Amino acid sequence: MRTSSNPAFRNLPQGQGNGGYATFDRQGGGAMSGASAYADSRASQVEHGRAGSGERPITIDDVVMKTGLSAGTALVLGTLTAVSGLYALALPAFIVGFVVSLVLIFKPQWSGAPLVLLYSAAMGVALGGITGVFDQIYPGIALQAIVGTAGVFLGMLVVYKTGAVRVTPRFTKWLMGALIGVVVLMLFNLVMSLFGINTGLRDGGPLAIGFSLLVIGVAAFSLLLDFDQADQAIRGGAPAKFAWYIAFGLMTTLVWLYIEILRLLSYLRQD
C-alpha cells in the first residue's frame, strides 16, 4: 500500500475492495457496480474501517464538492483579508489553522464540515494577510500567485489522470526522500538564521530561487500522491464522510504550494 507525503492521508481508512464509483484514476472505468460491490463486502468493510451498514461509499463527486467548498472558503476570506488591510489577523489565524490541522491529523474521526471549513477559513485569512503585505510591496503578485497555484494543481491533476507520471512505490520512496531533504534544509536555514548566519536559501539570490523551485516541485509532485491516496480511498469503499478529510489533505498541500509560489514570485520581483 502506497503512503502519501501528506500526513493527513495516512489516516484514511483503506480497503482491498472496490467501491465501484468513478475515481481520479484513469483506469476507474473497469470497476464493478458500486451497489453489488458494497453489498457483497459489507462485513469486510466494517472490519477494515470502510463504509459500514447505513453508510454509502465515498464518490469522486463528494471529493470534488468538499474540496471546492474548502478552497472557495479560503479564497474568499483570503481576498477579504487582503482587501480590507487586516493583515494583523494573519498570525492568530495561522495559529488557529495549525492547531485545527493537528486535531484533524490525529483525530480523523472528527473530520467534517465544521473543522475542515474552520481550517480553510483560518488559513485563508492567514494567507490573505501575508499576501496583502506582499502585494503592497510587489503590486499584482497576489493574482500571479493564485493563478500559479491553480495552474500547478490542474496541471498535476492532468498528469495523474493521463498517467504521464505513474505513482509507483519507487516514485513514492523518491518523493518521500526529497521531502525529507527539503524539510531538513528548511530547519537548517531556520536554525542558522537564529544565529545571524545567512545560508542563502531564503535571501532572494540565485541559490534561494533554485531552492524555491525545488520546493515547488516537491509540493507539486506531492499532489500526485494526494490524488492517488484519494483514489485508493474511493476505490476501497471508504465512508462518504471522509470526503471532508480528503479535502483537508489536499488543502494542506495547496497552502504549502501557494506560500512557496508567492515566495518565488517575490524573489523574481526584487530589484
Task: Give a brief description.
Helix 3 (60-84) crosses helix 9 (243-269). The protein has one domain. By secondary structure, the protein is mainly alpha-helical.
Description of the structure:
The protein has one domain. 68% of the residues lie in helices and 0% in strands. The protein is built from nine helices and no strands. It has helices at residues 34-40, 42-47, 60-84, 90-106, 113-137, 141-162, 169-194, 206-235, 243-269. The protein starts with 33 loop residues before the first helix and ends with a helix. It is mostly helical and 271 residues long.
Task: Summarize the topology.
Layout: H1 34-40, H2 42-47, H3 60-84, H4 90-106, H5 113-137, H6 141-162, H7 169-194, H8 206-235, H9 243-269
Helix pairs in contact: 3-5, 3-9, 4-5, 5-9, 6-8, 6-9, 7-8, 8-9
Keywords: Membrane, Transmembrane, Transmembrane helix
Protein name: Bax inhibitor-1/YccA family protein
Transmembrane segments: 85-106, 113-134, 140-162, 174-195, 207-227, 239-259
How much of the residues is beta strand, in percent? under 5%
| Structural class estimated from helices and strands | mainly alpha
What is the share of helical residues?
A: 55-70%
Report the C-alpha radius of gyration, rounded. Answer: 20 Å
Overall pLDDT metric: 82
Q: Tell me, what's the shape?
A: globular
Transmembrane segments: 85-106, 113-134, 140-162, 174-195, 207-227, 239-259
Keywords: Membrane, Transmembrane, Transmembrane helix
Region (Disordered): 1-20
Pfam family, one: BaxI_1
